[in-house]
From TrEMBL:
Main location: membrane
Taxonomic placement: Eukaryota, Metazoa, Ecdysozoa, Arthropoda, Hexapoda
Entry's transmembrane regions: 6-25, 124-143
Pfam families xref list: DnaJ
Superkingdom of origin organism: Eukaryota
Protein name in the entry: J domain-containing protein
Organism of this sequence: Allacma fusca
Length: 336
C-alpha cells in the first residue's frame, strides 16, 4: 500500500463512526438512538408497517404484562421510548425532518429549530380558530347593538315628549284599558304596567336609526361574510348604473344620489348620516352641498364658526388668561 494514502485512509476510518454518531443529537427526536431501529423497521418501511411494528412492540413492553416492580419500571421506560419513536415517524412532516437530520447531521442549528418549532406550535386547526373567532365577534356585535338599542329605548321612555306620544298611541289602541282596571292595586304595580306599555309602544312605533337602531341578524360578521358575493354583485350593478345614468347620459341627481355625494364628502358612514336630523339634511339640499365648491365653502364656514365658539367659551378664556399671566408651561429635569 502506498504510504502517502495511509494517513487519508486512517482519517476516513476514524471519521466514519464519528459521522454516524453525530447524526443523532441528544434531546432531539429519539436522542442517541435511531427511531427506525427502536421500532425494528427501516427507512423504506411504509406507515402501515411502522404502525404494525409499534403495536407489536407495545404489547411486549407494556408495563401491565410484567409482575415485579423492577420489571414494570424497566418496561415502562422502554414503552415510553418506543412510543416517542412512533410519534416521530407516524407524522409525515416529522419523519421528513428526522430523515433530513440523518442525511445532514452537520446542520445542527436547523435541526434544533425545526424540532422545537414543531413541538412549540399549537396543533390546532386554523379553520377551527377562524370559525370560533368569527362566531365570537358576531355574538359580540349583536349583543352590543342590542345593548345600545335598549339604552336608546330607556332614554326615550324618560323623555316627556315621547312618553306623552306613547301614552296617546296606547290610548288610541286600547292598551290602557287594563291599566284602568288596576286602580285597586298599589301604585308600584300600576307604574310598572304603565312603563311596560310605554316601552312596548316605543319599540313598535319608533324608527330609531344610526348607532341605536334595532339590531338585525344581517349586521353581524357571519352574515356579512356569507352575503359578501351578493354584496359585491349589487355594488358592481349600482356602480355601472351610476356611470350609465350620470356620467354617460348626463341625468340629474336625485335626492338619494345627492345625499350619497354629500356623505362621501363628509367622510362618514351611512349609519352616521342617518342620525343627522331631517331638517339639517334639507338644508344640505338647499345649499347644494353635493357640488364640491359649495361643500368646501360650507365646511370652511363651519370650521370658522367652531373656532369662534371655542374662543368665546369660558374654559378657553380662562386658559388664555392663565397663559397671559403665567406663560406657557415648561418642563424641568432635575439632575440632582
Amino acid at each position: 500500500m502506498n504510504r502517502k494514502l495511509f494517513p487519508v485512509i486512517l482519517i476516513l476510518y476514524i471519521a466514519l463512526p464519528i459521522q454516524s454518531t453525530y447524526s443523532f443529537i441528544d434531546g432531539l427526536y429519539c436522542g442517541k438512538d435511531n427511531c427506525y431501529d427502536l421500532l425494528e423497521v427501516t427507512r423504506d418501511s411504509s406507515k402501515s408497517d411502522i404502525a404494525k411494528s409499534y403495536r407489536k412492540l407495545a404489547k411486549i413492553h407494556h408495563p401491565d404484562r410484567h409482575r415485579t416492580t423492577e420489571a414494570k419500571a424497566e418496561a415502562e421506560e422502554q414503552f415510553k421510548i418506543i412510543a416517542n419513536a412512533y410519534e416521530v415517524l407516524k407524522d409525515d412532516e416529522s419523519r421528513n425532518d428526522y430523515d433530513y437530520m440523518l442525511d445532514n447531521p452537520e446542520e445542527y442549528y436547523r435541526h434544533y429549530y425545526h424540532y422545537y418549532r414543531r413541538r412549540m406550535t399549537p396543533k390546532v386547526d386554523v379553520r377551527i380558530v377562524l370559525i370560533v373567532t368569527i362566531s365570537v365577534i358576531s355574538i359580540f356585535q349583536y349583543y352590543t347593538a342590542l345593548f345600545r338599542w335598549n339604552s336608546g329605548m330607556k332614554y326615550l321612555a324618560t323623555q316627556p315628549k315621547y312618553r306623552s306620544m306613547a301614552l296617546q298611541v296606547a290610548e288610541e289602541d286600547g292598551l290602557l284599558d287594563n291599566l284602568k282596571k288596576m286602580k285597586k292595586r298599589n301604585k308600584d304595580e300600576m307604574r310598572a304596567e304603565e312603563e311596560r306599555i310605554i316601552r312596548t309602544v316605543l319599540e313598535n312605533k319608533m324608527d330609531i336609526r344610526g348607532g341605536y337602531a334595532r339590531p338585525t341578524i344581517q349586521d353581524v360578521l357571519w352574515l356579512q361574510i356569507l352575503l359578501l358575493p351578493k354584496s359585491i354583485c349589487l355594488y358592481f350593478k349600482w356602480y355601472m348604473m351610476w356611470l350609465w345614468k350620470f356620467n354617460i347620459k348626463g341625468q340629474e341627481y336625485g335626492n338619494d344620489e345627492k345625499f350619497y355625494i354629500i356623505r362621501k364628502f363628509m367622510g362618514i358612514s351611512e349609519t352616521q348620516f342617518e342620525a343627522i336630523p331631517e331638517n339639517e339634511k334639507e338644508d344640505f339640499l338647499d345649499m347644494e352641498l353635493w357640488l364640491k365648491e359649495n361643500y368646501d365653502d360650507w365646511k370652511a364656514e363651519k370650521e370658522e364658526e367652531y373656532k369662534r365658539q371655542m374662543a368665546q367659551s369660558g374654559r378657553m378664556k380662562s386658559y388664555r388668561r392663565y397663559l397671559k399671566k403665567h406663560g406657557p408651561g415648561r418642563m424641568y429635569f432635575d439632575d440632582s
